[in-house]
Amino acid sequence: MAAVWAPVVGHLLLLALLPSTSSSHMVFDLGGHVYRTGEFHVTLLIGDPAKPYFLHVDTASNLTSLDCNKGSKVPHPVYRPAPNKLVPRKHLLCNALHQDVGEPEKPHKTVCNYEIHYLDGSWSHGVLIHDKFTFPSGSTKPDIAFGCGYNQGGSHETVTGVDGMLGLGRGSIDLVSQLKNNKIITKNVFAHCLSSKGGGYLSIGDENVFSSPANWVPMAPSTDRNHNYYSPGPATLHLDTKPIGTTPMEVIFDSGSTYTHLPEGPHAQLVAALKASLSKSLKEVRDPSRLHPCWKGPGGFKSLDDLKKEFKSVMSLKFHSGATMIIPPEKYIIVTGYGNACFGMLGRTDIGDMCIIGDITMQDQLVIYDNEQGRLGWRSSQCDKKPKSKSATFSRI
User: Could you tell me the fold of the domain covering 215-370?
Assistant: First the structure.
């Protein structure tokens, strides 16, 4: 669940900035794909007059942000904040931000600057600002605090085609907390559904996500106050019935990562076990996607359905809470534009004993983040079909 001080402090901080509106919940269409775009994004209208921006849905970032570097190659004209949109260094919002992401190495004297380091190895430097957001109802235009990034890079995975990040992490000024504190939604609950066909949807404040059974686990407490990740706790990884590694890994749900990341040791063991399970009709090849390993079948691979003919092994994460996440081949293998099947789990030396679940493994699952009850849930779902709800406001941007 969000940091314990967030609901109280967030309410006091944001009441002056954000107008109160009638409560509702919202469902947004998502664009993008694991391959080739490498991201899933929502379109939000920001500013006055409102302008559209593509924001990469990121559950491991506490701060929504736009790329404000005038030299950046982004889909829309680069956002340029007016001077009166800058949050002062001594404002309580700035203190809350630094509680979420940590103090910058060199704090600015007058404006609220920040430095953020993400799970995938990327980083961003910027300043905190506020501006109007126009939501699907059209009548709801709250003033939302967000980041204006002027220097960023260093990513292990290159995400292009977006203007910034939609921060949905466990913070005090993440977007969902701000919406609840201003009574735009009644519950700090959201869910995303990423389709293997591309696109999907993001639901904010909708209690209808609880109407069907799901695998529920308690949110594990964060071990780092500056990185309040969504974690279902420790788990052991299996390939079919074979355990991979001997030490349980701390699992993180990170929709900001395209692929799933494993510590180098378990990753190497998993790759070896996977190779041993494959038929000799598959030939290991190099692919321009730079993923490794990759295989070419006798007739090539044209779709995810073709994977099932050659890849039979099912992975699973068995959580200490008793829940299990099933990971079939289509959630750990991608089919590239060159007709190859490539392993979509990356080995890392810099993540300790963490297992970072990225978009590839979240595909075709409704993943629910219930900050009210402090729990996470997931269930299989047709993510290319938006839910039907009489009370939801749908985005048609």
Answer: Cathepsin D, subunit A; domain 1 (2.40.70)
**173 vs 100: CA distance, rounded Å:** 8
- Give the tokens for residue 69: 């570097």
Catalytic residues: 58, 254
Contact 370, 232 (CB under 8 A): no
The ranges assigned to domains in the chain are 6-208+383-394, 215-370
> Which residues, at least 6 apart from 85, have a Cβ–Cβ distance to it below 8 Å?
129, 130, 131
Q: What is the C-alpha to C-alpha distance for residues 388 and 10, in angstroms, rounded to an integer? A: 32
Q: Examine domains 6-208+383-394 and 215-370 and report if their fold is the same.
A: yes
Q: Quick one: which of 371, 372, 370, 368 has its CA closest to 387?
A: 368
Return per-residue pLDDT of the chain as tens, 397 residues.
333 223 333 333 333 343 333 346 899 999 999 998 999 999 999 999 999 999 999 999 889 999 999 888 999 999 999 999 999 999 999 999 998 888 999 999 999 999 988 777 788 899 999 999 998 765 678 999 999 999 877 653 445 689 999 999 988 899 999 999 888 899 999 999 999 999 999 999 988 899 889 999 999 986 554 457 899 999 999 999 999 988 999 999 999 999 999 999 999 999 999 999 999 999 999 999 989 999 999 888 998 888 988 999 999 999 998 999 999 999 999 999 999 999 999 999 999 999 999 999 999 999 999 999 999 999 999 999 987 654 455 454 4
Contact 307, 275 (CB under 8 A): no
The contacts of residue 103 (CB under 8 Å, 6+ apart) are: none
Protein fold of 6-208+383-394: Cathepsin D, subunit A; domain 1 (2.40.70)
Dig out the tokens for 137 from the structure.
Answer: 């109802």
Angle between helices 6-14 and 92-101 (to 10 degrees): 150
C-alpha 121/C-alpha 125 separation (Å) is 14
